[in-house]
Amino acid sequence: MPHERFECRGFIRNFVASLKEEPRSLERILDLGSAIQNEPNFSISLFSSHKYIKGANGRSDYWSGFTPEKYNNSIVFFDPDIGFETRTQRGTKWIRHDELVGFLSHLPKTSVAVVYQHRPHRKWSDLFIDLKKSLSYVHTAVAAYERDLAFVALAGNASAGRRVIAAVESYAHEHGVVRHNVLKQSHV
Length: 188
Description:
The chain has 5 helices and 5 strands; from the N terminus they run H-H-E-H-E-H-E-E-H-E. With 188 residues, the chain is an alpha+beta fold. It has 2 domains: 1-46, no CATH class; 48-185, no CATH class. Strand 3 and strand 4 (149-155) form a beta hairpin. The protein is globular, with a radius of gyration of 17 Å.
């Protein structure tokens, strides 16, 4: 679907349009942290932006030099092409839960991971039921979603969990087409 059909702020539209420009590079993402006017700037860092991996077979090598404990107060974003593996979707495109377990165990308590999830040919409610069953390794999981895509935030403790739920709820409230679903919140 052409990006012009999505409702978004101008700086996002300009960014998406720029992705077609040659040479293609993830480095453009770095500019997004200062592109939001009248909002606090945030820093963006890219891990190994010069590497391109194709499927799960290359991911362990790609992440081998990453040290998650250095990313305090961060959102670590995973875009595994399609999203989480589910009971109906297994293969190299999808991020596996066992890949995230080790990563999240080393992430600082103030940080969260976010996984891009494309909606498969199923209802969100069905996908979320399946996903909940596989999230034993996180304290909190919350999804912000609309018709075709979701962002699933994962937190390893109650403090980060409360922060990310509040952020997702606020974002959904401000953007009428976005809904949210708390998939898991441990009370321990």
